[in-house]
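Predict the 3D structure for this chain.
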Amino acid sequence: MSKPQHENRVEFCVYGDYALFSDILTRAGGEKFSYPVPTYEALKGILHSIYWKSTIVWYVDKVRILRKISTERKGVRPIKYSGGNDLAYYTYLRDVAYQVQAHFEWNDNRPELAGDRNENKHHNIARRMIQAGGRRDPFLGTRECFAYVEPCAFGEGEGYYDHSGEIPYSIMLHGITYPDEAVLEEDKGKLTVRLWQPVMENGIITFIRPEACTIKRHLREMSIKPFGREQKNFIGLEEFEGGDIH
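Done. Predicted structure below.
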């Protein structure tokens, strides 16, 4: 995937009363249990809430855990597939705060949007949206865990695990690769789930790139949704046809 020529890194702090980065092993039974640290996919979802455009692909570089990892169990009444409500217990992370460092690259699977590849425009909009707290409501893993976003300098301030050394975690979800963001030929045209084994070092987890995940599974075939005037699903296409972007 081609990379923009200039610096386009963003840094922000996201925090909230609760978070639920649900372990995929517990979701099938309905009793959700959170991973101790955020997943790549959850942080990417927050970036999409801040600023999303098909022209770019967000890559999460690092996350810093600022507060002590603690959990709280709650009784909830989820809707049953057969109708009505059920009783279940969800285990949430409580009082969470994270610093995130990320950058974007052009989406080479979207050649029809090549005229929209204005790096300064997208970077400036993303920074303004971080300052504003996001374009859409951000949340930490699940919709009921509302989050707040604000700009920061990655690494500033004190964190609970700053001097904890190396803490390895077991295999957990890294994220989902959709066909419009697939880099490897083997993943194109498929919906792919990725797993990895993170290591936290002095409170910081450095993520590997999605295409570097070796533990993965293709769930099903999936095509890329096209954008364009003929599909009538893209407003303002005439603004960047021919590359005339300001």
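The chain is about 10% helix and 30% strand.
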